[in-house]
Amino acid sequence: MSQSEFxxxxxxxxxxxxxxxxSGVELGIGDDGAVLQVPTDSLLTMSMDILVEGVHFPLFxxxxxxxxxxxxxxLSDLAAMAADPFCFTLGLxxxxxxxxxxxxxxxxxxxxxxxxxxxxxxxxITRGPLSIAIQVHGLCKQERVLRRDGAKVGDLIYVTGxxxxxxxxxxxxxxxxxxxxxxxxDGEKQTDACKQHFHSAYYRPKPRIEFxxxxxxxxxxxxxxxxxxVGDLGHVIKASGxxxxxxxxxxxxxxxxxxxxxxxxxxxxxLFGGDDYELCVSVPALNRREFEAAAESxxxxxxxxxxxxxxxxxxxxxxxxxxxxxxxGAYMHFRGAN
Length: 338
Known about the structure:
The chain is α+β, with helices and mostly antiparallel strands. 33% of the residues lie in helices and 23% in strands.
């Protein structure tokens, strides 16, 4: 690297505005470790995701967009637990020190960090194939932690936003998809506005922090949809010891998805695609009215797509109420690896 590790940290991270004052952050970048003060009525929540060039984002992708996605997908995990963002650390592996790339990456991080009041408090940088590891820290009220193991029989299943756009975005951007060669976007129907929508869906997912904090009292479990609805909901029912029934005719889709993708492929994207970073939550039926009002008060689209039932499996019904074969499964990083 033409610049030293410490020069890069100082110029693009310590002095870029990413380390800013935040209540509870006693010491951040510049020492051997960060020092944090957790309020006595809160619990510290941590989550980490790793993004690798060529796996989670394409070669030569815009660094600001990559940075936004890298932090957003981590913040989505905090939203799934009804946690407020507190701070984050960054592990960055670079093949070389490209000043314009680093400047763009830093700017992309700063935009989202400031929006969610989540400063960078430390990390590390080294040389190697491009990869990004972010660990976010959040604060949960002790009595309001949203977990995967709280779903109960009779609860209703809701999702925020729309489903399938993340997987459709991969096809729209010409990137590899685990959904198979038959999963395509109709190029003739894909307007510039559609392309921009899918680009934003992939690179700029919206962490549902405000929604989860506003609705936490009315939800019994939650998870973010990162690996596909079936796979992620599967974690919830396993942890909770219950089953689930999904009604695909209720699935919410964006207008670009409805325009550019066949009904069968929209359904495939919603069930197995992943990369939506919306929340899938269970809500006791008695809380339904209050939950829907709380979501509306923060302008968040929600849709009831099913119900928690007895058993240990997910059943999925199509528009004719025929059961759908779910054997193809959600995305798994090491499927087929030797």
